Amino acid sequence: MLRHSNLLQTTPGTDTYAILRFLCAHRESTVTPAAIADRTECPESKVVTTLSRLEAIGAIGRVTDGVQIHEDAAETLARRLKSLDAVTQLFDTAPDDCYATEDWESRIGSIDCVDENRK
């Protein structure tokens, strides 16, 4: 079972995200940190740090010639990454609203309450 970690709260476009995506895509393989760095274009130091954190939460196992992600962890991470991708796509395709523009408050009228029964 995958233990909770801030590592799992990653966002698309980050090194951690690229490393997790790579490991999920190559779940059947044993890979070295150098190979991960080469294929993801992430600094090897970042790969090593991320792998250490993944090992600490029980997501990967170290073997003689590299690391391999555990199948249950790969499934969990793949679902999370897919959800992140969907949210990112939704956000990227959503139209901007008027609150996204600067100084939007100046373009609306007053919302002061007026008692129309008072004269």
Descriptive terms for the model:
119 residues; mainly alpha; two-stranded antiparallel ribbon; 46% helix; elongated
Structural summary, described in words:
The radius of gyration is 23 Å and the shape is elongated. The protein has helices at residues 15-25, 33-40, 44-56, 71-93; strands spanning 60-63, 66-69. The N and C termini lie far apart (70 Å). Helix content is 46%, strand content 7%. A hairpin with a 2-residue loop joins strand 1 (60-63) and strand 2 (66-69). It contains four helices and two strands. A two-stranded antiparallel sheet has the order 1-2. With 119 residues, it is mainly alpha-helical.
Q: What does the secondary structure layout of this molecule look like, with pairings?
A:
Blueprint: H1 15-25, H2 33-40, H3 44-56, E1 60-63, E2 66-69, H4 71-93
Antiparallel strand pairs: 1-2
Helix pairs in contact: 1-2, 1-4, 2-3
SS-based structural class?
mainly alpha
The main sheet orders its strands as 1-2
What's the pLDDT, averaged over the residues?
81
**Strand share of the residues?**
5-15%
Question: How far is it from the N-terminal to the C-terminal residue, by CA?
Answer: 70 Å
Dominant shape: elongated
Helix content: 40-55%
Counting H and I runs of at least 4 residues, what is the number of helices?
4
Major sheet attributes: 2 strands, antiparallel
Radius of gyration: 23 Å
| Number of E strands | 2
Low-confidence stretches: none
A few lines on this structure:
With 119 residues, this protein is mainly alpha-helical. The chain is 46% helix and 7% strand. A hairpin with a 2-residue loop joins strand 1 (60-63) and strand 2 (66-69).
